[in-house]
Amino acid sequence: MTAPEPTPECELCEAAKITEWFYEDDTCWVADCEVCDVPMVVWKFHGNEPPESEVEHMLARLGSVADDRLGLDGWSFDRVMRQIPDHFHAHARDPNWWFRRFGRK
Ligand SMILES: [Zn+2]
Ligand SMILES: [Zn+2]
To answer: Which of 24, 36, 41, 80 is within CB 3.0–4.6 Å of 62 for a Cys-Cys bond?
Structure first.
């Protein structure tokens, strides 16, 4: 008998179990990104091509959380999926996120 192969874990699927969510529905959830410390929306399905209607829905949900937490006009969408290109997600970044996250504590 061979040992079971270690299954490659997707960080975003994994994060779904450990992160505190600001918002959740059947399509997506919104939480703070552990890496960046800004709100992000994550599709509930593993894949990088959600239907356009769901993309709009997700960006709208992320937008309302970002407005609450970062202030109206205090942030912008970042849809570049640098770390995890195969699972749809988007960040709402405020101009100071980099300093807050990586600057002096
Ligand atoms: Zn992030
Ligand atoms: Zn995933």
So the answer is: 41
Q: Which ligand is nearest to the CA of 78?
A: 1
Q: Which ligand is nearest to the CA of 11?
A: 2
Structural domain contains residue 47: yes
**How close is the Cα of 84 to the center of ligand 2, in Å?**
8
Task: Please identify which residue in the block is written with the tokens 């609450």.
Answer: 68
| 100 CB-side CA count, 13 A | 10
**pTM (two decimals):** 0.86
Tell me the pLDDT band of 62, cut-offs 50, 70 and 90.
very high
81-93 pLDDT per residue, tens: 998 999 999 999 9
Q: Which domain holds residue 61?
A: 11-102
Could you give the number of structural domains in the chain?
A: 1
